[in-house]
Amino acid sequence: MRTSMPRTVAAAALAAVALTPGIAAAASPPTLGACAAGELCLWDKAGFKGPRHTYELAGIDIESCVALPEGSSAAALANRTGRPVTTYQSAECAETGEFQTYPGSGTWEPESPYRARAFKVWER
After folding, report:
1. pTM
2. Which one, out of 30, 36, 79, 120, has a CA that is 20 to 30 A from the CA of 13?
3. Backbone dihedral region of 47: left (phi > 0), alpha (psi from -120 to 50 degrees) or beta?
4. Domain spans of the chain, in order of start
5. Using one digit for the tens of pLDDT, what is the confidence trace for 14-73?
6. Could you tell me how many helices (H) and strands (E) the chain has, helices first?
7. CB 84 within 8 A of CB 102
């Protein structure tokens, strides 16, 4: 009986964790948003949800500020350009607001710490 009691308590604790909202979901890894090699992908909503804006190096001026379409912003991103990308809270790439640089080796950010409204792709 002593050996079965701890197992019963442990099983009950695991069942309680599994039934507690948010705990089981937090344990599963996030699904990465679809973004092809060579692209910068930005989603309107966290968790790679909502409309996606996709940019390729061929259509971007390197080290120039690229504003997202007017009225839109991004809450999640994937950088697969092979180059560092800085996202900006400001639509003018102003460094007075929030900004952060993501490596180009394959970075997925399911929830940006701010609404990104513009970005710059760097040479290296």
Report:
1. 0.73
2. 30
3. left
4. 1-30, 39-121
5. 344 344 444 444 555 557 888 999 999 999 999 999 999 999 999 999 999 999 999 999
6. 2, 8
7. yes
* Per-position DSSP letters for 46-90, written without gaps between them: TTTEEEEEEEEGGGS-TTS-EEPSTT--BSEEEE-SSS-EEEESS
The H or E element that residue 40 is part of is strand 39-45
C-alpha dihedral sign at 74, 77, 80, 85 = positive
Q: Which residues contact 117 (CB under 8 A, 6 or more apart)?
A: 67, 68, 72, 73, 74, 88, 89, 90, 91
Cα three-residue angle 78-38-69, rounded to 5 degrees:
60
The label of the residue with tokens 């990104």 reads: 116
Query: Of 109, 51, 111, 113, which is closest to residue 85 (Cα–Cα)?
Result: 109
